[in-house]
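Sharing a chain and its predicted structure for anyone who wants a worked example. Both blocks are below, sequence first, tokens second.
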Amino acid sequence: MIRFIVATLLFVLGFLRAEAAENNTTVFPASGTETGRLTINSTTDLAAMKPLIEAFQKSSPGIAIDYTEYLTNELNSLASEACRKGEPLGDLLLSSSVDQLLKLANDGCATAHTSPETAKVAEWANWRDEVFGFTYEPAVFVYNNRLVPPQEVPRTHVELADLLRERLDYYRGRVGTYDIRLSGIGYLLAFNDARQTTTVFGRLLESMARASAVARCCTGEIIEEVAKGNLYIGYNMLGSYAYEAALRHPQLRIVVPRDYTLVLSRGALIPKGAKDAELGAQFLDFLLSERGQSIARTNAFYFTETGGLPPDVDGPQNLKESGIAQPIRIGPALLAVQDRAQRQQFIDDWSQSLIELNSPDWTRE
């Protein structure tokens, strides 16, 4: 009887997981006679990837694409499980949590790929020809200019910490950031924040705790709350999503912090044993190509390593030349980020500092 109940529960959980994936899947039919079907599993919002998918299909009209969206931790869990079972999760994985992709590769779950396009990837954004960075996305501050006076706009991490101390009542419950217990990208950014300077990071954590900062799982949720005026400031938001939202909401403003700016390169990995690894490699090469990068710069991710900032972004003219850019290197150091004991200790310390001691009303939505 117990075995029957367990089997039934496993079946139901599997069905619900499959149904959830299906509900988050968008099908891009081939524009011509279908000659192949590419399956992409990703943490990137469809709105950002759609221009790239459509451009790829113009040059490959016979390729249909199934694009499924996941949260970062969800995709990592499913990909890890699939790898253990020898059942690859699609033909290409795209994730903003490059530390999770790196661990998958280190666990033998990736297929190496080399081409003229991969040879052009910056050394800091290529791990063993298995994980490739294909974007350049700064972590930024986002604020609502109808609610944050010009003289109070923070332009460094210290200025943000001081603002929350000095104007505690005004900003209480009005600052949003990631809940790193739920968000893989939130954890990655927070971990690298702490590496920059523990003093500043601790000071900012304390200030945000006093201000009863609000936690959310995803960049989009926080930014939309800032746009609505429910939150006034969003911390450590991905610049690409922030800029896309600012194009739709004129009250949104973006600040590239002047003391240091973490830069994420969204990663791509071809799973080991992928059903159609060649199609995965073909799409990856397109993402890395001059054409793919041009489309990403103008229609999807907006920021580049060598170019200037997009219009109306408050920051230095050129991130790389300014010296404030701190790219999160896709390399061995990221394995420490995914070390289970170290990860749990960091999350526990973060939770105690930011939530348990100072913010009993913290939300985990």
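Comments welcome. The longest helix spans residues 2-23.
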